[in-house]
Write a structure and sequence with these properties.
Order of helices and strands: HHHEHEEHE
CATH class of the largest domain: Alpha Beta
CATH topology of the largest domain: Alpha-Beta Plaits
Number of strands: 4
CATH superfamily of the largest domain: Lrp/AsnC effector binding domain/regulation of amino acid metabolism (RAM) domain
Low-confidence stretches: none
CATH architecture of the largest domain: 2-Layer Sandwich
Number of domains: 2
Number of helices: 5
Largest sheet: 4 strands, antiparallel
Mean pLDDT: 93
Radius of gyration: 20 Å
Distance between the termini: 26 Å
């Protein structure tokens, strides 16, 4: 497969919806033989287009029903400051996503925990205690009408 075509796009779309779909079912949905479909999927994996497969968890069923996006500004814009912040954040189980972004702040986090009280503890005792952190802005998730993260 030298180029990315419509069938490859269909394969990715189907796998994004259901990573556990059988190769036979996937082949039927995209109009290929099972062997041709498997070769395509393996090539997409080999090229790094498909990075892996994972389970989508119901966080509220696991006791982590509270979610917030948190904007974090650093007091120092040096590489050392960013590396120290990223190292600290990587150890925080409440942080399920950490993005270094452009704009008026340096980081956008997705934080998931049990409830508002647990978030306050994270906000005050973990995030607020980091010496690199200059500003914290929280955006509490009230609902997610569209969420395609997997």
């Amino acid at each position: 497969m030298t180029e990315f075509d419509r069938i490859s796009e269909q394969i990715l779309q189907e796998l994004s919806r259901d990573g556990r779909i059988s190769n036979i079912e996937l082949a039927e949905r995209v109009g290929l033989s099972p062997s041709a479909c498997l070769r395509r999927v393996q090539e997409l994996e080999r090229r790094g287009i498909i990075k892996g497969y994972r389970a989508v968890l119901d966080r509220s069923a696991l006791g982590s029903g509270f979610a917030a996006y948190v904007g974090v500004g650093l007091s120092d814009h040096s590489k050392a400051s960013q590396e120290a912040f990223e190292k600290a954040i990587s150890r925080a189980p409440e942080v399920v996503e950490c993005h270094n972004i452009t704009g008026t702040i340096e980081y956008l986090l997705r934080v998931e925990c049990a409830d508002l009280r647990a978030y306050k503890h994270f906000h005050t005792d973990m995030l607020g205690a980091l010496p690199q952190v200059n500003s914290i802005t929280s955006y509490v998730v009230m609902g997610s009408p569209k969420d395609e993260r997997a």
